[in-house]
Specification:
- The complex is a heterodimer.
- By secondary structure, chain A is an all-alpha fold.
- Chain A has one domain.
- In chain A, strands 1-2 form a two-stranded antiparallel sheet.
- In chain A, α2 runs antiparallel to α3 and α3 packs antiparallel against α4.
- Chain B is an alpha+beta fold.
- Helices cover 56% and strands 19% of the residues of chain B.
- In chain B, β2 and β3 form a beta hairpin.
- The longest helix of chain B is centred in the C-terminal third of the chain and has 17 residues.
- Chain B is built from 5 helices and 3 strands.
- Classes of the chains: A mainly alpha, B alpha+beta.
- The interface between A and B is medium-sized, with 29 and 33 residues.
Amino acid sequence: MPKQENQEAKEQLAFIKSIMDDSQKVVADNGDGFILWGILIILAGISSFILDQFQLNQFQGWMYLGIVGLGWLYMMTIHRRAKKYSIGNPLTKKIIDSIWTAVLISMTLLGFVGGVSDTIDLDHMNAVMYTVLGTAYFLQGVITGKTWVRNLAFGWWLGSITLFFITGLPATILAVIMMVGLQIIPGIIFNRQWKAQFVED
Amino acid sequence: MTDFHYQQIDDLIHSRIRLAIMAALTSMGTASFTLIKKTVGATDGNLSVHIRKLEEGGYVSVEKSFVDRKPVSIYSLTDHGTSAFKTYIKYLENMLPS
């Protein structure tokens, strides 16, 4: 009898472990941050290009400040409130949130400090930004076990290598294509996956 | 040998499906009905019955809200549920030979 009980206890513990392991990587975010930042960065890129064409570069800093400020304002207000619907393992969520916060702060610093100090020229700013962005996608993909998200990082890195060598209109077009394909579309996919976690059939 | 009695095990948790719900909620913190259903592989009806039993036992709490104007139920373990789950695990561990 005790042997049978031991066996049953062992099976129950193994069952609990398997359920908990499966649930560990589950994280569903509504993707709003991805979509919003994607749109804002495209807007910033196009505005920057237009300002450059009209030789109004003295307004570049203000334009970036306004757009990035808008993004942060959104993150601190609406996105924060939407977090109550962000479901999944708390530790996994915390790690992913920390990665994105760190990456957004790094990008803001690189953009402003790098730009104002003239250590990163505006023509290659996207290349620097996208290299950093790739890191966040890679880590998120690995942590959540989503290979397609991890693979997006290679898209960011390959694109940023190209962006280090080109400037002007071709660079702006490539940057926009990357932002749509590697950020906004994945954001829409995240949103659909997130909604699917709630739809009760 | 411990003075453990198998009959002391918490019946509310001991059912396979309720145990799966408890384990999933312990790992995920909060989860929607759909997510729990996918994780434990239960049907809507079956899950509803068992999750209600856990709710009635005070092990699980539910928060009803709306996403895209559709009602959603978000479940989480209560403190009572968390401690009952820990106790259950301890019982199982005690049954294993040291």
